[in-house]
Amino acid sequence: MLYSQRLNQFTREHRDTVAALLCGLLLFLGWFALHLGALELAFLLLPAAYLIGGYESAREGLTTLFKEKELDVDLLMIVAAIGAASLGLWRREYHLIIDGAILILIFAISGALEGYAMQRTERSIRSLMSLTPDTARVLHQGREEEIPISQLKVGDEIVVKPGELIPTDGIILSGYSTLNQAAITGESLPVEKTVGAEVFAGTLNGYGGLQIKVHKPAQSSLIVRVIRLVEQAKTQAPPSQEFIDRFEKGYAKVIVVAGILLATLPPFLWGWDWETTIYRALTFLVVASPCALMAAIMPTLLSGIANGARQGILFKNGAQLEKIGKVRAIAFDKTGTLTTGQVQVFQVISSGGYTQADVLKAAASVESYSEHSIGKAIVQAAGDLDWVGAIQVQAIPGQGIMGIAQEQQVIVGNAVFAQQYVTNLPEELREIAQSLEQEGKTVVWVAKNPTPQARRGAEVMGVIAIADEVRAQAAATITRLKKLGIEQIVMLTGDNEETAYSVAKAVGIDRVYAQLLPEDKLDVIRHLQHQYQTVAMVGDGINDAPALAQASVGIAMGISGSDVALETADIVLMADRLEKIAVAMHLGRRSQVIVKQNIFVALGFIMLLLVGNFLGNINLPIGVIGHEGSTVLVTLSGLRLLK
Question: Rounded to the nearest 5°, which phi and psi values hold at 167?
């Protein structure tokens, strides 16, 4: 019973291989029977070889013919094989039946080999699926209870023991451990995590036990989004593949018409006998089929996608892998992209009789509703103070935020935004703010309006200086991109010019666009596209989403990036490591080189086989070996990107 189950499982998993082996066995026995003169036995074995070896190709070819009204390469192979067998029966030259069976056998072997080759890419992608456990250990009234991941709710508290996989994204409530995040971010070194840190589904817990609070639905976890996007990437054909698909449909029709002409005209034009004519026409159908050309692109791009996923670079589809290799200009957002985004309150300067605590409490009341990193830093700094959340909060991307707190309007934002509500900004504060900005700090103005109905009745409470660290790898990344030949690198930010130029100077960017609104960033990207055609944009926030969507290639930071940015971008850097941009570009360029090599090899083999066929130097089995060999060679060539 167990042996039977294993046999059934093996047959299901290796169906193409089993079919090819049976076809080969029946072909050999049929040939041996012909050699012994046992025609009845041979005519029983050889049709079985045709049926078993060619069933899949015939089914796919006929399905395409009847459902899509298109000719398929698989169907051409079957027609050529059956034509050879028919010619052999007609002329009583039974070796032609063997030739047809060899055609089907080699086609079946080729299909099995291509299947195994593609399974390498599939395994790299499918390995993501096994990164999350099926169940989670939930704390319920002090007791642990295992439930399916799909039943987890926001607010549930789960327990993860040492050595276990994290079942879903969450925040650590208690415990300390090191987590291996290589599967998600591509980073090989474990990361230390403790109370308050975010953990991701699919990462491996180290030596410490953790109690984690679920803060988002399980289906929204980072790994689930990665799996969903990679699955989409498998099914979305890039422009080059779509072109090849369209070409193949027209090319197949040309082959059929040319095959009919070759099967009828040579006896009248060149005096060929009918047997030679039909045999050459059948060989033409085989060698002219564009199987290798069809396999020139997708195996390469899927391998590149799988390679990128292993290194923490998520390509949402093959088109983006193609485009990233053609990028001539690249734009970077500043906060959270070139800088860590882990901003902290550096200094609070109060004015007009207010205390530093007053300034922080007022700012926190409205910033508590903001997703921006600056807002989070202000709320964190005001954590020990007694403040009340505002109502009617309204955020103006790139400028500031305002709301009603304790019946007074609170305005928090940059100087331009604050001036819309304040009669004048105190000169002393202006000088301090300017000095801080020259040091690379971001300055946020805080004002309060006792009468919200009055447009410019607010008074300045003070300013908050926010410090943001430049990413350690930012300067090296910019240098590497310049060496790769990127013609223009710019920085886009809603921050003031002093802060922007301070960061740009630190990382080596010469061209800066500061004090931009989201639509301004969009305009800059359009201007760059007009100059350089293929432009990449790297960002992490909601205000970067329009520019990410407009760019030829949008690149989002996977950890610090907002959900909107992640959904809008074409490529996601899972570990927020800027140096991976250069790796992605190298992958894109290498994929283009391999695709061009594959197309050259595919077309070269077709031309060589066609010339050999017309000169009469190849027979049907040799044509099949050359044709299928080139297909396997091209497929294996594409898999080089897995390294």
Answer: -80, -25
CA–CA gap between residue 449 and residue 505 (Å, rounded): 38
Q: In what order do the strands lie in the sheet with 553-557?
A: 313-315, 571-573, 553-557, 535-539, 329-333, 488-492, 511-513
- Distance (Å, rounded) from C-alpha 213 to C-alpha 66? 54
Please check whether residue 537 is in contact with residue 555, taking contact to mean a CB–CB distance below 8 angstroms.
yes
Distance CA(100)–CA(85), nearest Å, equals 6
H/E element, 616 = none
Q: According to the model, what pLDDT value does residue 117 have?
A: 54
Calpha distance 554→337 (Å, rounded): 13
Q: Is 333 marked active-site?
A: yes
Q: Tell me the C-alpha to C-alpha distance, in Å, between residue 468 and each of 133, 343, 363, 533.
A: 37, 5, 18, 32
Q: In this structure, are residues 412 and 367 in contact, taking their beta carbons and an 8 Å threshold?
A: yes
**β pairing state of 553-557 and 535-539:** parallel
- CA 225, 227, 230, 234 dihedral sign is negative
Return the ∠ at Cα 203 (arms to 160 and 571), rounded to 5°.
Answer: 145
Quote the CA–CA distance of 417 and 419 in Å, as a whole number: 6
Residues forming a β-bridge with 376: none
Rounded distance between C-alpha atoms, residue 58 and residue 454, angstroms = 79
The single-letter DSSP state of residue 149 is G
pLDDT along the chain (643 residues), means of 10: 56 73 88 85 87 81 74 71 77 75 75 62 52 78 84 89 86 86 56 84 82 81 59 54 66 77 82 78 76 76 81 80 90 84 83 90 89 82 86 83 89 90 87 84 88 78 86 90 92 80 88 83 89 89 76 80 64 83 91 89 86 76 75 82 77
Q: Is the Cβ–Cβ distance between 484 and 582 less than 8 Å? A: yes
The Cα–Cα gap between 501 and 167 comes to 43
Q: CB burial class (10 A; 0-12, 13-18, 19+) of residue 423?
A: exposed
Dihedral sign, CA of 17, 19, 22, 28? Answer: negative
Edge-to-edge order in the sheet of strand 459-467: 344-350, 459-467, 442-449, 408-413, 400-405, 391-396
Cβ atoms 510, 504 nearer than 8 A: yes
Separation CA 411–CA 446 (nearest Å): 6
Residue 186 identity (one-letter amino acid): G
Neighbours of 47 (CB within 10 A): 15
Q: Please tell me the distance from the alpha carbon of residue 591 to that of residue 411, in angstroms, as a whole number.
A: 51
- CA distances (Å), 159 to each of 46, 48, 135, 147, 619, in order? 63, 59, 11, 12, 68
Among 243, 240, 228, 231, smallest CA distance to 301 is for 240
SS3 content of the chain, % helix, strand, coil (to 5): 55, 20, 25
| Whether 323 contacts 534, CB under 8 Å | yes
Distance in angstroms (rounded) separating the CA atoms of residues 94 and 38 = 12
From the candidates 169, 333, 540, 544, which is the catalytic residue? 333
CA dihedral over 320, 321, 322, 328, signed as positive or negative: positive
The 3-state secondary structure of 539-586, one letter per residue: ECCHHHHHHHHHCCEEEEECCCCCHHHHHHCCEEECCCCCCHHHHHHH
Give the containing element (helix H, strand E) for 287: helix 274-287
The token pair at 328 is 């001539």
Query: Amino acid letter at 13?
Result: E
What residue has token string 């009845």? 40
